[in-house]
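ZP: hey, is the manganese (II) ion complex queued? I don't see it on the tracker
AM: it wasn't, my bad. submitting now with these inputs:
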Amino acid sequence: MAATSIPTESTTRESKLTSRDLRGWMAAVDQIGELKQLDGADWDVEIGAVTEMGHHRGEQSKALLFDNIKGYPPGYRVLSNTLNTTKRLAVTLGMPTDYTRLEFVRKIKDRITNVKYIKPEVVKDGPVMENVFRGKDINMWKFPTPKWHELDGGRYIGTGSVDITRDPDEGWVNLGTYRVMIHDEDTLGFYISPGKHGRIMREKHFAKGEVCKVAVSFGQDPLIFLAGGVEVPRGLSEYDWIGGLQGSPVQVIEGEYTGLPFPASAEIVIEGDAMPGEERDEGPFGEWTGYYASARRPEPIIKVKRLYHRNNPIILGAPPTRPPCEFNYMRCFVRSALLWQQLEAAGIPDVRGVWCHEAGGSRLLNVVAIKQRYTGHARQAGMVAAYCHTGAYLGRYTIVVDDDIDPTNTNDVLWALSTRSDPEQDIEIVRRSWSGPLDPMIRKSDKKRHSSRAVIDACRPYEWIDEFPPVAESSPAVRKAMEEKWGKILSE
Ligand SMILES: Cc1cc2nc3c(=O)[nH]c(=O)nc-3n(C[C@H](O)[C@H](O)[C@H](O)COP(=O)(O)O)c2cc1C
Ligand SMILES: [Mn+2]
């Protein structure tokens, strides 16, 4: 398979190149006081449980850097809880840090709508090449890979990672965050849900009876992880999208074994082969819905042919847990922005806000706020939101609200739902929609692979909107006057 010019000896040496990378991100986050180092934790459940405790501290949480991990050399680290505060997310996106949730979603939407894509820059060398292993020298157990949750069926090195594949027909390169577990020294398991870009590419290779070449990066600039975990449109390489967002090309090395481009400043990268028909049991794994829904079952493997890592490598971990957690919290913002962008691209006028709620893992409970312009506008917005690329996979409820409702405010949304919808006429059910093994409402013994959607119109009925009872709250003018007159006393 490998061309004869490819070296076969493993090597170790010092770094030469520097670029936007995980360490630069850690330094920036440390500067704003949001990085915490913990020494001596055990890879076996402890790192995962502490990460989970971090998740539930929400905006007060810190990024967690685990070092001196039991049984591993100092410097072999795990970083978790990276993108679960608005501040850290803003730093990652190079944006100001003082927005409200909804303003932040709107700003991200504007960024991704107006972005000019920038292709990656191919470089010959980079920090990830400090240590190179080939053939029998490859040992995936050399890293302090956590067993994240107590009931996990293995140690998952790939959670905050990106799996890199190429479409055999169209040639474009996809980056997707698809979980990766270690089977043995040179064998990994990777689970990709039906319909995801990496899955379609893998299936195209397998259908031709060909090997699907894969590169995986297990630690890199969190912006790359962010892009890998959300629905960047098909045909557009996440590299180009990231380049656009950061305003400079991602520096990539074309792997000697696969030719696939991987980040030059990544912490740990592998290249390998997935073969048609070669599978091993994968899972279970604590998933973003908050359950272990997909059973242990055969899934494709990657035979690792090359392993590269920086000195003192850092695994970027992003284990899902019962929501809200980092995994879906960062995605609430980015996915909401993408959904908003796609609604506008589909021609839905006057979208005023979107929130893919954290309780639904940013997929199961999505809210769209509109300024109603015509009869049917709300249904149209709801249907498109439920079925566009960003909203379609494993959705459940889409709620459409008026523009006086802040979709990021749960009480506001539940108030609109309770008072502006009539179940008999305002809930549309769409059957046989895109789901998958991770859906906790699909019984494991069931052959069924789809689920239904409810689109709930919780807007004031448009045809008698002028008759709808007025809201029992002070008008802005009265509120302003009272604030001036009494506000000071109230806040004393
Ligand atoms: C931390 C994390 C873990 C994920 N794990 C998986 C996974 O194991 N399998 C999967 O199909 N999708 C997983 N996802 C969701 C995909 O990354 C997401 O749907 C993304 O859009 C896939 O890329 P694609 O649109 O290029 O297919 C995960 C996302 C995140 C953020
Ligand atoms: Mn993609």
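AM: back. The longest helix spans residues 326-345.
ZP: great, adding it to the tracker
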